[in-house]
Design a protein that fits this description.
194 residues, alpha/beta, UDP N-Acetylglucosamine Acyltransferase, domain 1, six-stranded mixed β-sheet, flat
C-alpha cells in the first residue's frame, strides 16, 4: 500500500513579496548602516571605543567596557541593547531583525549566530516575524553556537560550542548538542563538595 500523500500546501510568494517587512525609517537606517558598517569593519583591532561609539550612533544601547571586533556583525544595531562588560568574539553574527538584549558580563564566543528573525510558517504568505532574543547577565555562549528566535538564555547559563538552542535555557544550566539539551549545572560540584 503506497504512503498517504501529504496535504497540499502552497506558498503565496506574491503576498510575501508584497508585504511591508520594514518601516520607512528602518529602510532609511538600513541604507545608512550599509555605509557606516565599513567604518566599523575597517577599524583596527584595538579600537573598541570607536566601535562602541559607531554602534551608539546607529541606535544601539551600549554599556561600558564592551568588546566587539570589526568582524562582529550587527545586522540592525538599533535593535540591540548591550550591558556593561559584554564581550563578543570575532565573526559573531547578530541577526537583529527583532530586539536582542545582552545583559551585563555576557560572553558570546566567536562565530556564534544569534537569530531574532523568522517567518510565520502557518501563513501561506510566510510573513516575517521578529521574536526577541535575551541573554541574561553572566551567560556564556560557546563557539559557533546558534541561538534561535524568541530564546532567553538564563542568568549564568552556558551554551556549549556548536549547540543549537531553540528553547529557553534556565539560569545556571549548561546545555549542548543539536538540539541543545541539559548536560550539567554550574556550581553544583562546588556546592556538593563544600
Amino acid at each position: 500500500m503506497p504512503p498517504a500523500a501529504a496535504p497540499p500546501y502552497d506558498v503565496d510568494v506574491a503576498a510575501n513579496r508584497a508585504a511591508r517587512k520594514y518601516s520607512r525609517r528602518e529602510q532609511s537606517m538600513r541604507v545608512a548602516w550599509m555605509f557606516g558598517i565599513w567604518l566599523y569593519r575597517l577599524s583596527p583591532r584595538p579600537c573598541f571605543a570607536w566601535r562602541r561609539m559607531l554602534l551608539r550612533l546607529f541606535g544601539a544601547k551600549v554599556g561600558a567596557h564592551v568588546v566587539t571586533y570589526g568582524s562582529t556583525h550587527f545586522y540592525m544595531p538599533w535593535n540591540v541593547e548591550i550591558g556593561d562588560w559584554v564581550a563578543f568574539g570575532e565573526q559573531v553574527f547578530v541577526y537583529s531583525l527583532g530586539r536582542v538584549r545582552f545583559g551585563d558580563k555576557v560572553t558570546i564566543s566567536y562565530r556564534t549566530h544569534v537569530c531574532a528573525g523568522s517567518h510565520d510558517l502557518e501563513d501561506p504568505a510566510l510573513p516575517l516575524t521578529k521574536p526577541p532574543v535575551t541573554f541574561e547577565p553572566t551567560a556564556w555562549v560557546g563557539t559557533e553556537a546558534f541561538i534561535g528566535p524568541g530564546v532567553t538564555i538564563g542568568h549564568g547559563a552556558v551554551v556549549a560550542a556548536r549547540a543549537v538552542v531553540v528553547k529557553d535555557v534556565e539560569p545556571l544550566n549548561i546545555v549542548g548538542g543539536h538540539p541543545a539539551r541539559l548536560i550539567g549545572m554550574r556550581g553544583v560540584q562546588r556546592r556538593a563538595g563544600a
